[in-house]
Specification:
5 helices; 5 strands; 5-stranded parallel beta sheet
Amino acid sequence: MHTIMIIDDNETELLIAQKALEKDYIVVPMSNSKQALMRLAKATIMPNIILLDIAMPGINGFEMIMRLKTSEKAKNIPVIFLSADLDNSTELEAYRLGAVDFIRKPVVADLLRKRVELQASLLDHQRRMENYNQ
């Protein structure tokens, strides 16, 4: 079973995402990036996918993904951004920084499930290919 870390300072959005995914995944909710970074630094098992809000106090989503991508432990974790920002340049910046997907808020539970399912499926396929090559 895949582990999904959700990082969002909006408790309502965090709860919506958690409820949408908890049936099929192990969900690790985090209310801010600093808390998530501390958890990731101590983790022996990393999440398979990270859902990341952009507009957060302290370390925002863009700063967070830059830290993740420079971390040997976390650099390959797929990041899906969550944002209420309607500006296309924000979405473009998210992809430029290494996001695999971008979901607009308010989150639609069915859409979130499908997009996470797609990333989980890609991870499963990648693992099968690595095992086959070995």
